[in-house]
Amino acid sequence: MLFRQVTHDDLGCASYLIGDDDAGVAAVVDPRFEIDVYLDLARYMGVRIEHILETHNHADHVSGHGRLAVATGATIHIHRLAAPDYEHAPFDDGWELELGDVVVRALHTPGHRPEHTAFTLVDRGRGDEPWAVLTGDTLFVGDIARPDLAIEREQGAREIFASLHDQLLCLADTCEVWPGHLGGSMCGGPGLDMKVSSTIGYERLHNALLAEPDIERFVERSLASLGPQPPNFRAIVALNRGVLLTTGVEAQPLAPRQVDMKHADGALLVDVRNPEQFDEAHIPGAVCLTALNAGFGTRLAWITDRAQEIVLVGRDDADALHAAKLATAVGIRRIAGFLHGGMTSWREERRPVAHIETLTIGGLHARWPQLQILDVRERAEWDDGHVPGSVHMPYHDIDDIPAGIDPARPVAVLCASGQRAAVAASLLAHHGATDVVHVTPRRRRDLAAGRAPDRALGLALLVIAAALGLAIGLVVGSVGGGGAILALPVLVYVLGEPVGPAASGALVVVAVAAAVGAGSLARSGQVCWRIALTFAAPAAVGAVVGTLAGSAVGAALLVLLFVPVMLVAALATWQRARGGLDDGDGGCPRPARAPVLAAGLAVGLLTGFFGVGGGFVIVPVLTLWLGVGFRRAVAMSLVIITLTGIVALLSHIAAGSDIDVGVTTALALPTAVGAFIGTQVSERLPAAALARAFAVIVCVVALLLLVDVLALGGPPGA
Question: In terms of domains, do 470 and 386 share one?
Answer without folding.
Answer: no
